[in-house]
Design goal:
Elements: H1 2-31, H2 38-58, H3 77-99
């Protein structure tokens, strides 16, 4: 009989520990918040749109028969300067969107 009592005590303490751990986990879930806010995601979407716009501006410039004619439009300001600046600016904006700390 003494052995039966000693077996029940650890089981009861294990149940209490499990219920305390469950209660602690529930309170952690209530206190936990997302790392990024809704505004961060909107900023990230804007940065992605800027990057896509840069790549769209960079595209094109091919000719129908590249063996016989060369299209010098490929070296325009839009493709050589503006589009890469937009792409790099979009990536910089993405870094800002991720690093921006939500208020509150």
């Amino acid at each position: 009989m003494a052995q039966a009592k000693s077996k029940n005590k650890p089981a009861a303490s294990v149940r209490q520990s499990a219920s305390q751990a469950t209660h602690a986990a529930e309170s952690d879930k209530k206190e936990a918040r997302m790392a990024l806010d809704k505004r961060n995601y909107l900023y990230m979407l804007t940065g992605f749109a800027i990057i896509v716009l840069g790549f769209v501006l960079m595209s094109g410039g091919g000719s129908e028969n590249p063996a016989t004619e060369f299209n010098y439009d490929m070296f325009s300001f839009r493709r050589i300067t503006l589009a890469p600046i937009l792409v790099l600016g979009g990536f910089a904006f993405e870094i800002f969107a991720i690093m921006h700390k939500p208020k509150g």
